[in-house]
């Protein structure tokens, strides 16, 4: 019996030490502790809370940025001229077009842009339509009618889009989910019969912004000054900085076969961490709640596997969202929270830990409060008092078992 008591005391002592002893900061491949991560906010907090009079994380993030369009020798004006050449709605294959040539029933009717990107009218050579405006197609038809000897002089011609088809494009580079995609499709419950019967059609579902958002949204390291659009063997530069700067930004209409490449500035840009037409629609987080005072995520109103928060949410906001903050100070203070994330540039995972009470009381807390990215995971750990209570409960169970066993 004496041996059992000694064993029990030893277990209790070890449990107390385990519950009270602080754990070291998580190890990472990158120099996260000294601002070597994707965000400067990942670095370990300075122990001297009064040493930081100003917030410096945003400046530290900007130090690693490569120059944008304004600093590469390409003028913004040159980029704008390239963009203007893409302005206006352009036809793509499978679009439905209404063509009328005076009262000539031979040509009047609805036509679909063929897979090869042409319109095939009777008695005329194929008319190139892929990537062209309706005005350009009208001029081309007029020229062919005269050159083929069907008319002595060009008649009045009307080309109107009756319906835009979906298109297949690809997006790569500094986006969260680079892949080939189909955009512009309309589901059955969204069909407008009145629009289908009317002449003329318009769509924003084939715009560049839709493709970027469908690719998970642009990453915080994206270079929006020189988004590349590859079309027909040519490379166009689109300046989309106006989306975040409150200026007009040209939203190009895409065509089937277009390839979009978003370059990276190799740095984290804090000003891109907010909702926009080209940002992620939100952040789905994987969460693991603490054991006390809640016994599980369900009773804490936390979803079984993920929970969505607005894009631009910070780590501590999500920690509050997991019921990991507050409660009785004697038993609930000095919890910690862990952020599991991944550097989207290198693909290397990172683990960040914060002592919640220390973080809340820092005047420079924002400098060490990371922004959340899609796919991040959060885990909360209970306070030392709760840990000791749990150890005592386990030791008690062991002691009872030891007393029962002869």
UniProtKB/TrEMBL annotation:
Q: In its UniProt entry, what is this protein called?
A: Polysaccharide biosynthesis/export protein
**Sections of the chain in a coiled coil:** none
Q: Which controlled-vocabulary keywords does the entry list?
A: Signal
Can you name one GO molecular function term for this protein?
A: polysaccharide transmembrane transporter activity
PANTHER family named among the record's database cross-references: POLYSACCHARIDE EXPORT PROTEIN GFCE-RELATED (PTHR33619)
Ranges for domain Polysaccharide export protein N-terminal come to 90-161
């Amino acid at each position: 019996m004496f041996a059992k008591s000694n064993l029990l005391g030893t277990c209790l002592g070890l449990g107390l030490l385990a519950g009270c002893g602080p754990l070291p900061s998580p190890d990472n491949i990158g120099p996260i502790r000294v601002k070597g991560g994707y965000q400067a906010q990942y670095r370990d907090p300075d122990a001297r809370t009064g040493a930081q009079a100003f917030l410096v994380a945003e400046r530290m993030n900007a130090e690693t940025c490569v120059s944008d369009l304004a600093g590469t020798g390409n003028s913004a004006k040159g980029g704008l001229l390239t963009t203007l050449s893409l302005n206006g709605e352009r036809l793509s294959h499978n679009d439905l077009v209404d063509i009328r040539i005076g009262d000539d029933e031979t040509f009047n009717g609805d036509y679909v842009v063929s897979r090869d990107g042409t319109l095939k009218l009777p008695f005329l050579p194929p008319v190139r339509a892929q990537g062209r405006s309706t005005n350009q197609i009208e001029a081309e038809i007029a020229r062919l009618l005269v050159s083929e000897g069907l008319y002595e002089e060009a008649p009045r011609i009307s080309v109107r889009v009756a319906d835009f088809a979906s298109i297949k494009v690809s997006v790569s580079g500094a986006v969260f989910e680079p892949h080939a995609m189909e955009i512009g499709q309309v589901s059955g419950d969204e069909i407008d019969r009145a629009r289908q019967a009317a002449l003329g059609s318009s769509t924003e579902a084939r715009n560049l912004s839709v493709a970027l958002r469908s690719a998970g949204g642009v990453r915080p390291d994206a270079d929006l000054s020189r988004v590349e659009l590859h079309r027909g063997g040519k490379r166009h530069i689109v300046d989309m900085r106006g989306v975040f700067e409150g200026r007009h930004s040209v939203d190009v209409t895409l065509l089937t076969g277009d390839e979009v490449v978003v370059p990276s500035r190799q740095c984290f840009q804090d000003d891109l961490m907010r909702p926009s037409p080209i940002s992620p629609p939100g952040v789905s987080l994987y969460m693991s709640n603490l054991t006390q005072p809640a016994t599980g995520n369900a009773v804490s109103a936390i979803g079984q596997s993920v929970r969505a928060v607005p894009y631009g949410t910070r780590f501590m906001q999500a920690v509050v969202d997991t019921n990991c903050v507050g409660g009785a100070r004697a038993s609930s203070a000095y919890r910690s929270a862990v952020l599991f994330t991944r550097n989207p540039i290198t693909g290397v995972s990172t683990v960040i830990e914060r002592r919640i009470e220390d973080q809340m009381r820092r005047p420079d807390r924002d400098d060490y409060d990371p922004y959340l990215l899609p796919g991040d995971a959060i885990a909360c750990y209970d306070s030392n008092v709760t840990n000791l209570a749990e150890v005592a409960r386990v030791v008690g169970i062991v002691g009872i078992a030891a007393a029962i066993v002869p």
